[in-house]
């Protein structure tokens, strides 16, 4: 057995668990100490040699007539398995799921009458035909600092049947706590948004303890995922489309006022959206092409612009427009973007973080919640209705 105590290993029938019995040295028979005490028994389940163990099962260790000193679980691959020891040290139970298709060894150490003994159980988990993995976490760019409005967006490699089971293992831990909720925006996509903006200058840790989770329909989580997100300065831009101007504040202090020329409003397409937007990406240069039009059609355009910062999926950017400097601050003549001077565009481009807030007012077209990163267009009460746990 490898232990020093008066124990020997017996495989019991029925439950198929590994059991360690203390054998007496004299009178009393097997399972009884010579002093007449009850037998010291340590039981591990799943039993040694068990195969095809369900990944969403539980490892249990129980002790009778002795106390557990420690329990460790080692896997050939996959996430570390942790557990909870009972206060009386008579039992231990794993507190998370197991990685599919891997081998585990459980080692339990117990102590009785000053002597320590060890028992182990090795088993394998089943390898399901279908698994579930996270294939994209946004934001995830190495070294990136993001704005205070930044959501956490996950995309899976298949639709999720049991959304509640998956959502339960998604953990968001900011240095500066704030209430938040997940919203299933599509069968294979879920997004986390806070009730109020993140506090700036902090770290947010995301972890998905997905390995072994029963996601429904015979699908099990393949592996865990994690991401560390750095929240940068609070950079919030507020603009009035009718007044042709916007103001940028960093950590509450005004740092720049920028005149612009917004959409001319001749059509809905050419109307800049009002509402709470987030900065999504930057490009220099960016080629702008009129959506749904071919060359020669009325309203067709193809323009290359510099220092463009996107804030919707409907083609809205803050970008350099040297051709409209005379209208910036006084008239709206664009196709829907915020046209600014080359110097202001360069400054904004260099300053912008993905997830920065740009809140615009003054038009009759509200940005849709699913138009880019428009999550802040919904009240938090409405947002969390998209959770599978509400």
UniProtKB/TrEMBL annotation:
Keywords: Acyltransferase, Cell shape, Cell wall biogenesis/degradation, Peptidoglycan synthesis, Transferase
Pathway: Cell wall biogenesis; peptidoglycan biosynthesis
UniProt xrefs under CDD domains: LDT_IgD_like_2, YkuD_like
Catalytic residues identified in the record: 319, 337
Sequence ranges assigned to domain L,D-TPase catalytic in this UniProt record: 235-361
Top-level division of the source organism's lineage: Bacteria
Record SUPFAM superfamilies: L,D-transpeptidase catalytic domain-like
Pfam families on file: Big_10, YkuD
Protein's name according to its UniProt entry: L,D-transpeptidase family protein
């Amino acid at each position: 057995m490898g232990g020093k105590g008066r124990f020997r290993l017996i495989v019991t029938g029925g439950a198929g668990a590994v059991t360690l019995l203390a054998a007496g040295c004299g009178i009393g028979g097997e399972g009884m100490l010579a002093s007449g005490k009850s037998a010291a028994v340590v039981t591990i389940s799943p039993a040694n040699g068990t195969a095809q163990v369900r990944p969403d099962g539980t490892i249990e260790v129980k002790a009778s007539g002795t106390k557990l000193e420690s329990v460790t679980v080692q896997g050939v691959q996959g996430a570390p398995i942790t557990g909870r020891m009972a206060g009386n040290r008579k039992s231990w139970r794993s507190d998370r799921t197991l990685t599919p298709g891997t081998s585990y060894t459980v080692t339990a150490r117990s102590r009785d009458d000053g002597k320590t003994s060890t028992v182990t159980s090795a088993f394998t988990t089943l390898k399901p035909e279908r698994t579930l993995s996270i294939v994209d976490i946004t934001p995830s760019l190495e070294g990136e600092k993001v704005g205070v409005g930044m959501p956490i967006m996950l995309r899976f490699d298949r639709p999720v049947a049991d959304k509640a089971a998956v959502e339960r293992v998604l953990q968001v831990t900011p240095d500066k706590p704030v209430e938040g909720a997940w919203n299933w925006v599509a069968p294979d996509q879920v997004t986390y948004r806070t009730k109020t903006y993140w506090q700036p200058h902090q770290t947010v840790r995301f972890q998905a303890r997905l390995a072994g989770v029963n996601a429904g329909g015979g699908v099990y989580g393949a592996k865990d995922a994690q991401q560390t997100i750095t929240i940068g300065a609070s950079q919030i831009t507020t603009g009035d489309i009718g007044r042709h101007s916007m103001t940028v504040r960093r950590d509450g202090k005004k740092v720049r006022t920028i005149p612009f020329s917004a959409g001319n409003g001749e059509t809905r397409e050419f109307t800049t959206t009002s509402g709470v937007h987030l900065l999504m990406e930057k490009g220099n240069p960016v080629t702008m092409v009129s959506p749904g039009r071919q060359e020669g059609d009325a309203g067709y355009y193809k323009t290359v612009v510099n220092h463009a910062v996107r804030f919707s999926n409907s083609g809205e950017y803050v970008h350099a427009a040297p051709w409209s400097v005379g209208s910036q601050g006084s008239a709206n003549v664009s196709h829907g973007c915020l046209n600014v001077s080359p110097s202001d565009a360069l400054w904004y481009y260099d300053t912008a973080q993905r997830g920065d807030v740009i809140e615009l007012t003054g038009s009759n077209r509200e940005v849709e919640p699913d138009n880019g990163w428009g999550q802040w267009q919904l009240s938090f009460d409405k947002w969390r209705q998209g959770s599978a746990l509400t």
